[in-house]
Design goal:
four-stranded antiparallel beta sheet; mainly beta; single chain; Neuraminidase; 237 residues
Length: 237
């Protein structure tokens, strides 16, 4: 909406540029110059100013819901490997900048959310990657609707959807004495009808992190090697 308004203002300004009057009759020698009138020129700021929202705690990812015109922000609120049940998801209206900071909140008795990271929308549900499970919430109310366990996973990171299935990465990490340590569970999973199946796995995936599906192809960004690669027939290409 803000972009549409900004474009409209620019269009109005462009349509109200200074008008040049048609040439008048020739002046007689010695006659004073004829007065000229011009239309006022619209002025406006050339760019929108960024607005600051506060209150987030270790914000990990942002997801836009086009149908509702809202943004979801996952907040780890602690260590990314800790099963501490204090994560939350914020819901932001981009027009009013209203921030429902703890729209989904682990402090509520019916919600479990440890270290929420990547998110995806499929149908009426918002899915959130949370350590070793993918949690499901109603995308309009935030009410919990169950979870999908990913067997053998240790650090579920990002989520994507192609409109039919979900895709989730396992970066294969755990907390160590000096930061992250590898667990060897590096993998990319596909979830169809709540049933996970492994698309690819192995150390050559280099801690798979971000994931996206474009034209039916699964693309992955690695956490450990600054790579962008495609998963095809169970292998990294």
């Amino acid at each position: 909406m803000l972009k549409r308004l900004l474009f409209l203002f620019i269009l109005i300004a462009a349509c109200q540029r200074e008008a040049v009057p048609p040439p008048g009759p020739p002046m007689k020698e010695g006659a004073p110059p004829m007065p000229m009138t011009t239309s006022p020129t619209a002025t406006m700021a050339t760019s929108a100013q960024p607005q600051k929202l506060t209150g987030f705690q270790t914000p990990e990812s942002v997801l836009y819901d086009a149908d509702q015109d809202v943004y979801f922000v996952s907040n780890i609120n602690g260590q990314p490997t800790a099963a501490d049940d204090n994560g939350f998801v914020s819901r932001i209206n981009p027009d009013t900048l209203q921030n429902d900071l703890k729209w989904i909140d682990a402090a509520k008795p019916d919600i479990i959310l440890n270290a929420p990271k990547g998110m995806a929308i499929l149908g009426d549900n918002l899915y959130v990657a949370d350590l070793v499970v993918v949690r499901r919430f109603d995308r309009k109310t935030g009410q919990p609707k169950g979870e999908i366990a990913i067997p053998g996973s240790t650090f579920l990171n990002d989520l994507a959807s192609d409109g039919k299935a979900l895709y989730v990465t396992d970066s294969g990490l755990k907390a160590g004495a000096n930061g992250f340590e590898p667990t060897g569970s590096d993998a990319v999973w596909k979830i169809v009808n709540d049933k996970p199946q492994k698309l690819a796995s192995g150390s050559d995936l280099n801690r798979p992190n971000g994931v996206e599906v474009v034209d039916g192809k699964v693309w992955v960004v690695s956490f450990g090697a600054n790579e962008l690669y495609q998963i095809d027939k169970g292998k990294k290409t």
